[in-house]
Specification:
This protein has 18 helices and 28 strands. It is α+β, with helices and mostly antiparallel strands. Strand 13 and strand 14 form a beta hairpin. Bound molecules: zinc ion (ZN) (2 copies).
Length: 589
């Protein structure tokens, strides 16, 4: 809860964190008298500062900088504020090209400067009174950062740090970071051989390896099955379309920065689709639709391409090409509430099935710039609110955060580090139907504009895999695991039986393989453990003789030898139930 005391504490921490960045800059200046300074803001839990230095920093530099910072803090140096004119500021920072640029961007006539010790910075503040007020901090890492986030500008060196009130809070945070690093989907994706993103192939473009593709197929099959059950029709639409369509839709105007350059085909400009909406509208418009035909729900696992700067790309969660689990609902105004309830129900069912517990529902309302009239906004926002009430779940209002074309409901997941990830979204659209004349014939025999809803219930396949990987730390529940059972023959003479078991399991739709390497048993178990395979089936003399298997679970628990039939039934049931935690066998007594 954001109480007043909490807000004050956050403000105080922010001031301390930002002041720590000045202290770090002073320490760096003492090491590199010719250092050029970028910016050094406070961020969540800490701060950074961007430097232009004569040599690249290495992790070994961090403890040196830290100890210089400790000395500055120990001497309790005051932060002194001074106001000067822009001209004076330009003279003061004559040797600091980045600061000069910042001064030129300022609109104020007066510029405030802060000095502590030998370091002088241009800054709005506020700051702590003196460096002794900085309680505890740690420098984390060094990263490259383009000046102004622009890849055409120089690459600066950014040092990240965290700062807290107490040593305990710092220790707790570092522990969480360590846990998050273990769960980082980029690291797990590499270790589990799920996907790769290769610079030579193209940044932000995801290659799904066989094991990642298995997980994706399981998710997609489940997704399609649920959509059929809930009255959706599956469609497919092309990856490119004439550019004129995107002019009519308003994308060229509102969305220009995300679009790739057009390609010329027989004198006509085409672009890669940034969204699937227009294909679905085109299908809708192939017939005259009557009020009795509605609602129509078109679903597509549609791959879209959006330009993102290379600096903001991040593993699977920020990419340049991704597959949305998209759908568009075309309905009458009087059907909107039930449709939104239906989507919410589906989204929450998905979230529960995949085992997420920490998420937040948000209702985003009208922003400053919007399409349509205030009246239709109010009405649709009310409809979304009623749908949320009917879902019985708690939600919060995100004022002014709707997209320009309509209000929306967002579901955000919380990651291991407490960071919010965009999950399902349900958006009402007042913009496209009139632009494309997406109409239906009403009971009155006249044409009316449909209500259009854009929605995804997982987000995108890429981001969803990232979220799943971090949520489960790579140990997927049985129904999602790329390999569900690994058969481990104790010696070569057990290999025939192992292959027989594999064939029988595969025959039942269980994803099994055999570790046939000429290795001893323990390294094979270790390997399966590294791959986080739910079941290891060990077969030796006894198992061959009695036609059984001995089970070792990923958790390390052993299950006594049992007939293969029994194991098959247990696993099939866990898969059918989409069990999220149990591996099918209870804990031993
Ligand atoms: Zn400052
Ligand atoms: Zn759409």
């Amino acid at each position: 809860m954001a109480t007043k005391a909490n807000q004050e504490k956050e403000k105080r921490l922010e001031t301390m964190r930002h002041s720590t960045s000045h202290v770090m800059a002073e320490a760096v200046l003492s090491m590199f008298p010719d250092a050029k300074f970028g910016i050094g803001p406070a961020i969540e839990n800490g701060f950074y500062y961007d430097f232009d230095l004569p040599r690249p920093l290495s992790p070994d530099d961090l403890p040196v900088i830290e100890s210089k910072m400790q000395a500055i803090i120990a001497s309790d140096i005051p932060f002194i504020r001074k106001e000067v004119t822009r001209e004076e500021a330009k003279q003061v920072f004559a040797a600091q090209p980045y600061k000069l640029e910042l001064i030129d961007e300022l609109s104020d006539e007066k510029v405030s400067l802060y000095r502590q010790g030998s370091f002088l910075d241009m800054c709005r503040g506020p700051h702590v009174k003196s460096s002794g007020e900085i309680k505890t901090f740690k420098l984390l890492n060094i990263a490259g950062a383009y000046w102004h986030g622009d890849e055409h500008r120089p690459m600066l060196q950014r040092i990240y740090g965290v700062a807290f009130d107490t040593d305990e809070a710092l220790a707790e945070h570092l522990k969480r970071l360590e846990e998050a690093a273990k769960r980082d989907h980029r690291k797990l994706g590499r270790e589990l051989d799920l996907f790769s993103i290769q610079d030579e192939f193209g940044p932000g473009l995801v290659l799904w390896h066989p094991k990642g593709a298995v997980i994706r197929r399981v998710i997609e099959d489940f997704w399609k099955e649920e959509h059929f059950k809930r009255g959706y029709d599956l469609v497919y639409t092309p990856h490119i379309a004439r550019m004129d369509l995107w002019r009519t839709s308003g994308h060229l105007e509102f969305y220009k920065d995300y679009l790739y350059s057009p390609m010329d085909i027989e004198g006509q400009n085409y672009i890669l689709k940034p969204m699937n909406c227009l294909g679905h509208i085109a299908i809708y418009k192939t017939k005259i639709r009557s009020y009795r035909d509605l609602p129509l729900r078109y679903a597509e696992l549609g791959t879209v391409y959006r330009y993102e700067r290379s600096g903001v790309l991040h593993g699977l969660s920020r990419v340049r090409g991704f597959t949305q689990d998209d759908a568009h609902i075309f309905c009458r105004p009087d059907q909107l509430e039930d449709e939104v309830v239906g989507v919410l129900d589906l989204a929450l069912f998905m979230i529960d099935t995949f085992g997420f517990q920490n998420y937040q529902l948000l209702l985003s309302t009208r922003p400053d710039k919007y399409a349509g009239t205030v009246e239709i906004w109010e009405e649709a926002t009310e409809t979304l609110r009623r749908a949320l009430e009917r879902s019985g779940r708690e939600y919060e209002i995100d004022p002014g955060e709707g997209v320009f074309y309509g209000p929306k409901i967002d579901i955000k997941f919380e990651s291991a580090l407490g960071k919010a990830w965009q999950g399902p979204t349900i958006q009402v659209d007042f913009n496209l139907p009139p632009r494309f004349d997406v109409n239906y014939i009403g009971e009155d025999g006249k044409e009316h504009s449909v209500v259009m809803v854009h929605r995804t219930v997982l987000g995108s396949m890429e981001r969803f895999l990232a979220t799943l990987l971090e949520h489960y730390g790579g140990a997927f529940p049985v129904w999602l695991a790329p390999v569900q059972a690994r058969i481990i023959p104790v010696a070569d003479r057990h290999l025939d039986y192992a292959c027989q078991v594999e064939a029988e399991l595969k025959n039942e739709g269980i994803r099994a393989d055999v570790d046939a390497r000429a290795e001893r048993m323990n390294p094979k178990i270790r390997q399966a453990q590294l791959e986080k395979i739910p079941y290891m089936l060990v077969v030796g003399d006894k198992e061959v003789e009695t036609k059984t298997i001995s089970i070792r679970q990923r958790s390390g628990e052993q299950v006594a030898a049992q007939p293969l039939e029994q194991f098959k039934e247990t696993v099939k049931s866990a898969i059918a139930r989409r069990a999220i935690d149990a591996e099918g066998f209870g804990k031993p007594d």
